[in-house]
Amino acid sequence: MTATAPTHTSEPALWIERKGQGPDVLLIAGLGDPAEAWQFQLDGLGDRYRLTAFDNRGVGRTPLPDGPLTVATMADDAAAVMRHLEIPAAHVAGFSGGSVIAQELALRHPELVRSLVLVSTWSAIDTYFRSVVDSWRWMAVAAPGERAFLEAFFVWIYTYRAHADGTVAQIIDETLAFPYKSSPETIQRTIDAFLAHETADRLRNIVAPTLVLAGGQDITTPPRYGRAVAETIPNARFEVLPAEAHQPFQEVPEEFNARVDAFWREVEGRV
């Protein structure tokens, strides 16, 4: 099922994908990723949950508006999607930049968040992380072509295993064939929003049950970032997938789905 949802007055409509039946789950994608980034979850968890994914501003079929782009605005967009769909509260899962949006959603709209899953997350910008993301910013326009950009960018995202077995090559082909690719302007403005945003001094105010997942081989957001988030959010759980990198929900979807399903079942039982 697909739909569009108006967010704020005079702002763009967000493209929405929905699938399944059961307790509500909201999936928030990372930098430049459309709703289809969550396809393994939409397909693999739809028999137990009603999953909603959407295209962030400037991504996929959602237009990029003029004016400042902020994490707070994107969190309000996520809240608007839920209210448009009359979802009173949901298990919220965010990946990478989407995990920062999810943190902000839990802080700004706590009544909407039944639980949090934060994948490849962070809460503060240090010199290492700024250097990594700044390199993506100029690479988006300096690369000799789209394929060259993706080949360089995905070195930071996927495991050696995925590069060696042809998975990354397949993902690049699929990305290039996708008719709604993110523009360099979207990539750069979204990066600027992420780099301008920090939650470290506010995470203690999150009240939702939280699971933080990190990839042991993640060179973009190494486990130390996720551990710092989990240590600040009250009673958060921290788990490492030792053999995985930045995007485990795509590389090992069955293991990822099993972990989040077990967590959501636990939360449902506790409620």
From TrEMBL:
Keywords: Hydrolase. GO terms for biological process: glycerolipid catabolic process. InterPro entries: AB_hydrolase (IPR050471), AB_hydrolase_1 (IPR000073), AB_hydrolase_fold (IPR029058). Transmembrane segments: none annotated. Residues 25-248 form the AB hydrolase-1 domain. This is Alpha/beta fold hydrolase. It comes from Kribbella turkmenica. One of its GO terms (molecular function) is triacylglycerol lipase activity. Coiled coil: none annotated. PANTHER family: AB HYDROLASE-1 DOMAIN-CONTAINING PROTEIN (PTHR43433:SF5), HYDROLASE, ALPHA/BETA FOLD FAMILY PROTEIN (PTHR43433). It holds the Pfam family Abhydrolase_1. SUPFAM superfamilies: alpha/beta-Hydrolases.
